[in-house]
Amino acid sequence: MTPPVLSLDRVHKSFGGITAIEEFSLDLAAGEVVALVGDNGAGKSTLVKMIAGAHKPTSGRILIDGEEVSFADASQSQSKGIQVVYQDLALADSQSVYMNLFLGRELTRGPFRRLDRPRMIRETEKLVEALDVRIPSARSVIRDLSGGQRQGIAIARATHWATKLVLMDEPTAALGVAETAKVEKNIESLRARNLAILIISHSLDQVFRLSDRICVLRRGKQIGIRDTRSTDKNEIVSMITGLAAAA
Ligand SMILES: Nc1ncnc2c1ncn2[C@@H]1O[C@H](COP(=O)(O)OP(=O)(O)OP(=O)(O)O)[C@@H](O)[C@H]1O
């Protein structure tokens, strides 16, 4: 049997005296979209950062393809095919689109390893066209782009490099309706490529549109996991808040 792409096994995280995650377990399969929901401070970002290698779990295990991993930093998770799209995007504002797409993995040519700008530009153009990200040019500087265009670039970068798992921390929080729809289409195409996707979203409409399963956190506690098709917003809201569901 193929092991899950990602397994979290009783992961716990505290920051000094603050418990951010009590104990969290989840298996995520290839081609599956799991939504992580919970109120502010529930521990969602902390969980994503642990998977991405930005934080180390205090205890518990993280497995990729059935193998335990312990990432010292984000570049180690990237080399396992994991990419993150953060709320604040982590793009280099003063750099061009194509340099951002290849940040840290720039293409070079010749014995002096000069930057192969024409190839990076060509590949960027192909990618943004395939993902329908409308930007003036691959040479545009990030700070001159709109929020939606930037998010498109962040997702294009994740799409280009991810081979297993994409983590998304509120990818559409700052976007309008049309831009959100485009991002959701991109998420669907990642799923179609058999990537596993863990998405944090505060929009339950979005969560119900995109996810196969919904995992609820409340103040660091894993409240439960539901199949999206066999639950409803009432139940999820009551799990998030701890209050009884409305009749
Ligand atoms: N680096 C840190 N140092 C200390 N405490 C932290 C750190 N990061 C997160 N926390 C704490 O851990 C808890 C969970 O925070 P986290 O950001 O993971 O929540 P969240 O569910 O992503 O919230 P939001 O929806 O507001 O982004 C909070 O109590 C937060 O203050």
Q: Structural class of the secondary elements?
A: alpha/beta
Helix content: 25-40%
Return Rg in Å.
19 Å
Order of helices and strands: EEEHEEHEHEEHHEHEHEEH
Overall 3D geometry? globular
Distance between the termini: 42 Å
Number of distinct beta strands: 12
Weakly predicted, low-confidence segments = none
Main sheet: strand order: 6-9-10-3-11-12
Mean pLDDT across the residues is 91
Reported for the largest beta sheet, the result is:
6 strands, mixed
**Which distinct ligands sit in these coordinates?**
adenosine-5'-triphosphate
Total helices: the number is 8
In terms of DSSP E residues, the strand content is 25-35%
Pfam family, one: ABC_tran
Organism: Kaistia geumhonensis
InterPro entries: AAA+_ATPase (IPR003593), ABC_carbohydrate_import_ATPase (IPR050107), ABC_transporter-like_ATP-bd (IPR003439), P-loop_NTPase (IPR027417)
Protein name: Simple sugar transport system ATP-binding protein
Question: What this model shows, in words?
Answer:
With 247 residues, this protein is of the alpha/beta class. It contains eight helices and twelve strands. The strands form three sheets. Strands 6-9-10-3-11-12 form a six-stranded mixed beta sheet, sandwiched between helices. Strand 11 (213-218) and strand 12 form a beta hairpin. Helix 5 (147-161) runs parallel beside helix 6 (177-192). The longest helix has 16 residues, at 177-192. It is globular, with a radius of gyration of 19 Å. Bound molecules: adenosine-5'-triphosphate. Adenosine-5'-triphosphate binds next to strand 2 and helix 1.
